[in-house]
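FAQ: What does the model actually see?

It sees only this:
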Amino acid sequence: MVNQAINWGELIEKVVGGKPRSSLVKLLEKAFGDCYETDRDYSGRFLINCRRRVHLVLSMPTGYGKSTVSLVLGRLLEDHTFNNFTRLIHVAPTKSLIEDLGDRAGKAGLRHFTQYSLAPHESKAPFFLPNFVITTYDSFMLNMYKASVGEPNSKYGHFELPRYSIYTSLVHFDEYHLLSFSDDSGTVDSGKAWVTLLTTIRLLANSGVPLVLSTATPSKIAEDELIKELLAYDPESMVYNVHVVGKWGEALKDRECRLINGDDDLREYQCTINGMNYRLIELLFTEKLPNLETKMINLNNEDSGPLINELGRLLGKEPKCQCSPQVLVVVNTVSKAVEWFNLIRENASKLGLKNDDVCLIHSRFTIKDRESKVSKINEGYCRVLVATQVIEVGVDLNACNLITEAAPLPAVVQRIGRVLRKGCGGASGEVIMVNTGKYRPYGKEPIEKTLNAVMDVKGEVCWKMPYGCGGKVGYMELAKKVYSNLPSVNEEVAELSQYLMGLDMNVLMSRQDLKELLHQYCSLVREEALITVYVPHELESSFNDVKLSDLIPMMMTINSTTLYGLIKASDGDVCSVLQCSSNGLLAMFHVRDIDGTDHIAQLSDPRLLRIISNTYRNALKSKNGAKYFSTVMCRELSEYWTTTSDGELRGLIALVLNPSKYSSEVGVV
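And it is asked to produce this:
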């Protein structure tokens, strides 16, 4: 058996299409230095033998190369298999991030598959069986705990198939910070997602599954917790904690470490936490950074003048590099995005803009309209782009300047990561933070802490490097002031960990047990039900000759709070929001006839209308109506099916939105 070292530099060059960062090459050489190619053939792939198991905890600025690690390993897995994993599953928090990584994989010639709601049928991999799979946290956790997402109408499903895939993979949890802060910090969860993530890490590490956990906006307290879990549950492995620094030693603060070795690009330290040893790696960043000046303004509903004035000033500046859009405007809610979009268009002539120069993107557009807008943005047609959180991860922007509504620190860092991103070293830009006095959908405390932390340093923040640059404070220093604790977990959520461990380890527990668990917790990683809606150009009575893939472009996913708000704004009239007929609520169904024939149909369902109407009325009586509505919708719609008197089985695909509630220009508001 021939042992040959892996040429990581050549692999990265093939993936990125150019000369790679030498520090990234050395990182992979260090992490997988004990892995060697052999001439042993396993089902058409050569074996790579690794003498030790490795876990990576990556803290890297946006654009540095976190996702490149997955792409490089995905390339290697096309014709190789490792002795401790045979595939890679990249888990991302948003569909836009999955689509972006998929595009990069496609450009690199990588064969890859995806799994998420409304993913293209030809690339779906619900059992996670291919060599390189990109999926969401929702799909991953459901498959991990026996849901078998590819079999929605099955009572039990072949849930051990995706679990086999998971336990024979390297799993990359990307942007894990979105699950590591409490509800007050702006994530969709209050402790539940963090408990699910930690429990999953314990189970996988204990079974020898190699893990990569990456983020651009780390919290030291969360990072340390992850390292302790990996060391405790897989003590025979090597854990590497990787940081990008501007000066040697910046990542060592408040850590017990000693230098082992290093060179001009990389230094390796042995560190101790709770009496256990791990390795910390510093990668030296030597490239020229853009210069971003930070300014803060206050804005009230009565006076939009300061916003328009700042926008006009930024538009009057000549870009110093090839950046677009000229100004990126990011707000916290869809309604605010539409409000500011209309406001900017109303002042277009004053700002020297045409209406088409101003673009809008948020989560409440159909897939078809969203793709059209992203294409327009990528082609540089937008001088001003108004957006919500959808651009924080997975949208490949290179804006010249940013105006952002005040938000929790991780969100601000991600938004600034879309500014002067490529080929703009040394260029100047501005970040305008707007305090509107509004906190939805976030909590008041993290936004005020973020604003105070920025004001304490008089806006002198290096937003591109975690430990600072050019005499400015890095965002890691701000994070220590903003986040000093892990998510608070109540007794009910704490019990979730035990339930999940039981589901994983007890061979007698099945999908039905997970279903009971979801009735209590709604979701493993979010608190709201996600509802798929179809936006028709014109209503059809039947779709018997239409494939689901043909209908998907006209669909979108909204959360239950959005649906509740739409119904409330319509004075409780469900049928003014969702399309009804004389017989009930119209919905898209997957229909299985008594003879076993499958087809898609748009049918009226009186039971569905009663469920939503009654839930809404009961929610109005509840102390927290939106949460009550979400909890019931999660339970009622997650596996909704009905059987007709003649034995026809109907599985819900999507509710049908009333066309009057949708506009291709502003979406659903």
